[in-house]
């Protein structure tokens, strides 16, 4: 392991994903080895299965991997926030822990971020777009409907905010307001901060093992108050233009 400070932190929130830990960690390393200096940070959000043991096993093989554990489950958004806070790298790539996001997409997302003018990178979000989703028909329909409603209300012009594959600066994320389920609104929150969003098509795969922690009904029930809250945040935002500093 090199002593060079990492440029990129790959953050992965997990809850009861023991069957997916080793395969995904291996894929992350295979995708990034020799292309960028990176670290991998897993946050175990109060798992009750063998996730802690599998993370310990993975750390024996992959020194770049670090893990943090929530004693009690606090939700995916808080797990992501914990991982970003723990990161040493200034740039963050986010993946879901179920294996459906493909780590092989990260290098192209990184190149797209680097292609942006340096003065705008700090407030740029690269958002994955699952153009060919490998989910059930009911989940695809629910996601399509939710995306249409969200775009109409928030004007975030993002076709797929639910995709876990995202890349952004650590400072941008840490400057955002945090609340439960905020990870679903990162494009709108980026625009609220005066930034921009670029959507890129990414690979999507069937779940590796285990079962989803979410259902369509649960997503819908929490989605309405979340959407109203983000609409309020968007209306109340102000982004000053600083001209002189001494």
TrEMBL record:
Gene3D superfamilies: Spore Coat Polysaccharide Biosynthesis Protein SpsA, Chain A
GO biological process entries: lipopolysaccharide biosynthetic process
SUPFAM superfamilies noted in UniProt: Nucleotide-diphospho-sugar transferases
One term under GO cellular component: plasma membrane
InterPro entries for this protein: Glyco_trans_2-like (IPR001173), Glycosyltransferase_2 (IPR050256), Nucleotide-diphossugar_trans (IPR029044)
Pfam families listed in its UniProt record: Glycos_transf_2
Glycosyltransferase 2-like domain mapped to chain residues: 10-173
Keyword Mitochondrion: no
Transmembrane among keywords: yes
Keywords: Cell membrane, Glycosyltransferase, Lipopolysaccharide biosynthesis, Membrane, Transferase, Transmembrane, Transmembrane helix
One example GO MF annotation: undecaprenyl-phosphate 4-deoxy-4-formamido-L-arabinose transferase activity
Domain of life: Bacteria
Protein name (database record): Glycosyltransferase family 2 protein
């Amino acid at each position: 392991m090199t002593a060079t400070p990492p440029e990129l932190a790959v953050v992965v929130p997990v809850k009861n994903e023991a069957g997916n830990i080793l395969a995904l960690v291996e894929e992350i390393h295979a995708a990034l080895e020799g292309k960028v200096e990176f670290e991998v940070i897993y946050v175990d959000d109060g798992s009750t299965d063998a996730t802690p043991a599998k993370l310990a096993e993975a750390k024996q093989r992959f020194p770049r991997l670090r893990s943090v554990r929530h004693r009690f489950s606090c939700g995916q958004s808080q797990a992501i926030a914990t991982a970003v806070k723990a990161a040493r790298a200034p740039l963050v790539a986010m993946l879901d822990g179920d294996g459906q996001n493909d780590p092989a997409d990260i290098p192209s997302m990184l190149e797209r971020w680097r292609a942006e003018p340096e003065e705008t990178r700090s407030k740029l979000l690269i958002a994955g777009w699952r153009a060919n989703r490998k989910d059930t028909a009911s989940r695809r329909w629910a996601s399509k409907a939710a995306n249409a409603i969200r775009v109409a209300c928030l004007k975030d012009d993002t076709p797929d905010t639910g995709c876990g594959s995202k890349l952004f600066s650590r400072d941008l994320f840490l400057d955002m307001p945090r609340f439960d389920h905020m990870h679903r609104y990162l494009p709108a929150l980026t625009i609220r901060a005066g930034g921009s969003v670029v959507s890129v098509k990414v690979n999507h795969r069937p779940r590796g093992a285990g079962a989803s922690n979410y259902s369509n009904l649960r997503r819908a029930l929490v989605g309405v108050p979340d959407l109203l809250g983000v609409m309020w945040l968007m209306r109340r935002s102000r982004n000053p233009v600083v001209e002189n500093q001494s």
